[in-house]
UniProtKB/TrEMBL annotation:
Source taxonomy: Bacteria, Bacillati, Actinomycetota, Actinomycetes, Pseudonocardiales
Organism: Actinophytocola algeriensis
KW Ubl conjugation (keyword) present: no
Top-level taxon: Bacteria
Protein name: dTDP-4-amino-4,6-dideoxygalactose transaminase
Keywords assigned: Pyridoxal phosphate
Amino acid sequence: MLPYGRQSIVEEDIAAVAEVLRGDWLTTGPAVRRFEADLSALVGGVPTVSVTSGTAALHVAYAAAGIGQGDEVVCAPMTFVATAATAIQQGATVVFADVSPETGNLLPEAAAAAMTAKTRVVSSVDYAGHPVQVDELLKVAHDGGALLLEDAAHSIGGTWQRRPVGALADLTTFSFFPTKNLTTAEGGAVATPNPDLARRAAQFRNHGLVRDKARMRYPDEGGWHQEVHEFGLNYRLPDVLCALGSSQLRRLAWFKERRAEIHARYTAGLSDVDGVRTPVTLPGADPMWHLYPLRVLDGRRRDLFDHLRAGGIGVQVNYIPVYWHPVFADLGYQRGMCPNAERFYAEELSLPLFPDLSDDYVDRVIELVRKFFSPERSLRSEQ
């Protein structure tokens, strides 16, 4: 079965990990500092904090923003459950706002309509790797006294108006899961241009420990002394995985180029097929394509999914609207609240997309899609 996504690992990656294993540090050592510096350089010098997963990055970001009981977070529903769940785990109420029918990204006007006096964060998602309309969303968030969080699990290496993802929002979160645009096996990061948010993020990912004497309440206790002023968790990404991340970053430009080539090949092969809609790119966006979200019209998505799976093509659907999950239904969320997102979900089918995918396999996927929609097949189905 051809997967819809997979990691790209070369000998240089293996050597980088082996070098750490032969050294003195397995965690919280020089490879962590190097990886965070490499990430920072990629996102225009914005400080970054590495963590154990994309979910951890979201949790750390909400904690850094001070999210707690009584706060509200406006959230896009076309995302993995973690974007909303981590806000709820901090005690917030999540208010879902609808998405663009073109890109699946949070609509600025929908976010504005969802804002209240309790809104502390607006959480947008770079769906499929296409950056959000960050300037409009920043205005919406800041006008309401809130921060903008950009969930960039899909989009590291992309740009909006020639500015890198990671340097755009108040808080940006990344994921380095194996199917993402670069991997540390498991891992993630938070980027923020705000020094106080960066400090709070770094502190929360390390149990909330304070080691700066200038901030201690009892600074003269001794050289061993450290304090916890606010609770945190252990979300530290170890040196072994950071070494893999730094090695992967050296190939990120190629990953982006190859993903764009595959994306363009799909579009060229499918844009004339009746019954599907190919993805769009808004002016000013230079996406790092993580997914190829084909839209399958007329209620035929499930049939095409089964057809491709039967042909050995591991297509996927991204995502069930978050509030459809039973855990949200049990909290009182109801279907129908974001009609654009629900329509997008009903049509979306992610075709295989990863850097090592060959043109021959791309053409095989295109061939099977075209065969599904061919008049001859439709005629046989009717008989």
